[in-house]
Prior knowledge:
CATH class of the domain at 225-321 and 346-425: Alpha Beta
Oligomer: single chain
Structural class: alpha/beta
Bound molecules: Double cubane cluster
Strand order of the largest sheet: 2-1-3-4
Amino acid sequence: MSKKKDYTAMWKDLGIDLAAHDGLLEVLSSAYGEVFLSQSDRPKGLGYFDLLVSEIHGRRIEELLEAKKRGGKVFGVFCLYVPEEIILAADSVCVGLCAGADVGTQHAEQVLPRNTCALIKSFVGFKLARVCPYFETCDLLIGETTCDGKKKAYEIFGDFQETFVMEVPHTKSAQAQVLWRSEIQRLTNKIEEISGKEITAGNLSESVKTVNAKRRALQRLSALRRARPSPISGRDALLINQVQFYDDPVRFTEKLNALCAELTERVAEGTGVAPAAAPRIVVSGCPMAAPNWKVPFLVEKNGATIVAEESCVGERGTRNLVAEDGETRDDLLDRIADRYLQVDCACFTPNTERLDHVVEMARDYEADGVVHYALQFCAPYTIEAYKVQKALERENVPLLKLETDYSMEDAAQLDTRVQAFLEMLE
Ligand code: BJ8
């Protein structure tokens, strides 16, 4: 085995707190071993994704720095409403910023109330504790007015790093569509200003195709999980959905399509990750950003298989494509605006599309039950859980509602509740 490269000098140049960062990598590597590598008979194509994760603060950061040397810029985003296509069209890189670990919470709580959701505390903590090389590589952060917690946190965050905030409307009315289209234009102008590159119909059309190809590959992965037994565990599928926010989109698509070819063979052979009779679970709710693996691990270690995620790190982010038929730059920006406003985040009202999607997914994936996952203090998802429950009750689909954060303090209690739910399904 080749010796792992030492990236200390690069991290030091980026201003990373090396001791805290070493501690973080150690915890992550041991969690990765327990959650992912301990599984038996994993598809071989996952080797690429394991390598990518092991180099996520190393080789991938080097690649971003190399892209910057060639004149590109790096834009950090926190939400599905920021169109990656516009960033790629400016010959730049889009990275989804880490918000899935209980890191730097003490730092975050110096500027935010304790009763802020773990995802917000996590991204603020990563920045203030100086443990994330992605933040330090970004030329601009792009936030959005989705939930109250995020939009107020960006006001504070702007004191530490330049942050551009897009106004996301909270309804899908005709007026909201006009506002949203103008925000897409404002973002385009800002990306042109920072990158110094003109966004044209030509480069936008290319980037739309690139991102559509990535989403098609993710849709292909989802479709394969409909098989009984599923050819891949929910944990591994979640991991792929998480790393799509960091990896080069073209390489990611190629590797994922290769994995899907292998999974197709497994489906044909009837090879699965669990017995065909294992309970099948759809997870619905808040996004699980890397390295948030707590609930999927608990569900699957108790014998169930997660077959789909109704989440931003899942089908909420991949089900819609941008129409590729636009000829002018304005046409393409119109198509992008339309596509992104279809995302059914709980920040919108009303949000009946999400209820339809949860029910459809439970049916299409032949789920035995749904686990509703919400972060504590997340008003949009904890409140919308009531409507999700009613929609699933009408279809006789059992639901387990979980509210948690990123700490492991409640792991034993969650484990007991998950076990009881799965026993009830059996
Ligand atoms: S499109 S879900 S990524 S806003 S968990 S920070 S909602 S209090 S993450 Fe989200 Fe975009 Fe919507 Fe998706 Fe607020 Fe809730 Fe925290 Fe959340």
